[in-house]
Amino acid sequence: MAEYESLYYAGHIIALFAVSIIVGKIAGPIVTRILETLSGKTASTLDDRIIAAVKNPLETFFFLILFYFLLHISPDLADAAALLEHYLAVILTLIGTYMLSEVSGAAIRWYYEEGQTTTHLGKRMQKLGVDNSLLPLVRKVTKLAIYVIGITLAISQAGFDVGGLLAVTSVTALILGLASQETLGNIFAGIALQLDRPYHYGDYIRLPSGEIAIVKKIGMRSTKLEDIYHNTIILSNSEFAKMRVTNLSLPDEISLVPVSAEVPLSTDLVKLDSAITHAFAKAKPEGLLSDKKHEIVIDSVKPSSMAISISFWAKGFRNAEKIRQIVNRTIVEFTKHK
Predict the structure, then answer these.
(1) 36 lies in a domain?
(2) How many other CB atoms sit within 10 Å of the CB of residue 272?
């Protein structure tokens, strides 16, 4: 008889649990669809992103609330209802933590992708020179902080000693930190690069090896670059932070570009200068700063040749490379006909 009552008790709870899940799966999308209909009337996509972020937590919330009321309606399930009621605050705190984390992440991501150019706040922040490329890091740190606070609060509500747990966690974190110093070094170097911002996404940089690359992403552990041949270069943050790197995009995109060449000693540099000027006038290359005249400098002299440098001012690295090719071709054509 006792075994039959136990099976009935368990079956009753399972049945209510299944009904609650089904109702939650139905009620959640209905509420989400209503909210989506209302948000569709607004011009901003922020509300759409927030609704998408809370869709799953809403289903869980409706399931939990319905399951709670169904247990309290049935007198036979008083013990199960009391147990759920004891941990209800903990569960709701965890759901709320997850929901708040997703909402904050969606809001920051929206501002990073759209809001900084479409809102008055974003335009004002741009005028003040605020570096919005830090927002992905802010999003990660914000979500982590919300999780730490929410889980700590939930543990406290469950009746555990938070102080003792924090002590054990600190010792465990210390042990893990000592065992993974390289990983932590990369993480802290990534944070330093994100905060200091010596490079921005899209900047052209010259590595110590002489390679030219574009900064694509500074992550928590590694930095991704793209070279001029459209290949991806991946460097650990700690390695990248120690390099002596030249940022070709700072303080602005304007730079003095030298072209080195070795020409016959009999070369008429005045005529070569005129030939380069004519080539520039004919090609009209983008990025060439014609108001800053190029100049030819003799670097060294040999018995039958001399090394020269032709320097010109250009805006944008890719434009500079195209102009460099114009100069090189002009030198080849000029010396060929000597």
Answers:
(1) yes
(2) 20
Range with the largest mean pLDDT of 33-42, 69-78, 234-243: 234-243
Task: Report the alpha-carbon distance of residue 92 to residue 154 in Å, rounded.
Answer: 9
**165 shares its domain with 284:** no
- What is the torsional sign of CA 208, 209, 212, 218? negative
- Last residue of a domain, which of 124, 146, 176? 176
Q: In the β-sheet with 305-315, what is the strand arrangement from edge to edge?
A: 254-264, 305-315, 295-301
C-beta atoms surrounding 331 within 10 Å:
21
State the residue range of the domain holding 50: 2-176
CB-CB neighbours of 225 under 10 Å: 22
Q: How many domains does the chain have?
A: 3
My answer on whether 300 and 327 are in the same domain is yes
What Cα–Cα distance (Å) separates residue 269 from each residue in 29, 191, 311, 335?
A: 77, 51, 14, 11
Whether pLDDT at 142 is above 60? yes
* 13 domain-assigned: yes
Do 218 and 260 lie in one domain? The reply is no
pLDDT tens per residue, range 24-62:
777 777 777 777 777 667 777 777 777 777 777 777 777
Domain assignment present for residue 183? The answer is no
Measured between alpha carbons, how far is 138 from 109 in angstroms, rounded to an integer?
10
Whether the predicted pLDDT of 150 surpasses 60: yes
C-beta separation of 202 from 226 below 8 A = no
| Chain center to CA of 200 | 11
Q: What is the mean pLDDT of the chain?
A: 76
Q: Tell which residue, 285, 306, 304, 305, has the closest CA to residue 294.
A: 285
57 prior amide bond cis, ω within 30: no
Based on the domain organization, do 242 and 98 belong to the same domain?
A: no
Cα dist. 62→7, 72, 239, 272 in Å? 27, 16, 49, 80
In a domain, 182, yes or no: no
276 pLDDT above the threshold of 50: yes
Number of Cβ atoms within 10 Å of the Cβ of 167: 11
Q: Determine the Cα–Cα distance for residues 263 and 36; give it in Å rounded to an integer.
A: 71
Listed residues 230, 247, 264: the one ending a domain: 247
